[in-house]
Amino acid sequence: MAQDWRDHGSERYHLALDDFDGYLARIEQLRYSDELPSGWVPGTEFWLDDDHGQIVACVRLRFRLTPSLEIEGGHIGYDVPPSSRRRGFGTAALKLVLPEARRCGLDRVRITVDSDNLPSIKIIERNGGILSGETVSEKTAKPIRQYWLDTPP
In terms of residue numbers, what domain contains 112? Predict the structure, then answer.
């Protein structure tokens, strides 16, 4: 997955390629540490693999929101590497993390998305996302959509 991103011009997972043990340690630190970077909240990461053991989606679950994350970022962020898109992996990954969010005590989760990211909007809405607002990103100045999704009982 990390190499796929790199092959498509993104260094999004460079640490996983350069120092996989360090990447795993970072995930663990973000889950339990009280010494998180400013503005960060505890969370974890899940990977979805295909029938051949290739990672085809990554989902990050934040255990709580800050006021800033409620506006942009939300509880859940996910991505599908470019070579794995348009095959249902994003929809499946989001669906699979919702029960994990419930186990963490979240009755509903916030997800935000760039308004022009139609594939991600479809993923969110296929999983029951209800549009609750629209705003402009303070980071990119792009319009974003805000959704709430109930977690399954």
Answer: 2-150
With helix as H, strand as E and coil as C, how does the chain read?
CHHHHHHCCCCCCHHHHHCHHHHHHHHHHHHHCCCCCCCCCCEEEEEEECCCCCEEEEEEEECCCCHHHHHCCCCEEEECCHHHCCCCHHHHHHHHHHHHHHHCCCCEEEEEEECCCHHHHHHHHHCCCEEEEEEECCCCCCEEEEEEEECCC
Radius of gyration of the chain (CA): 15
Phi, psi of 52, rounded to the nearest 5 degrees: -110, 10
Give the mean pLDDT per block of 10 residues along the chain (153 residues).
83 88 86 75 92 92 92 94 90 96 96 96 96 94 96 93
Q: How many domains does the chain have?
A: 1
pTM of structure: 0.87
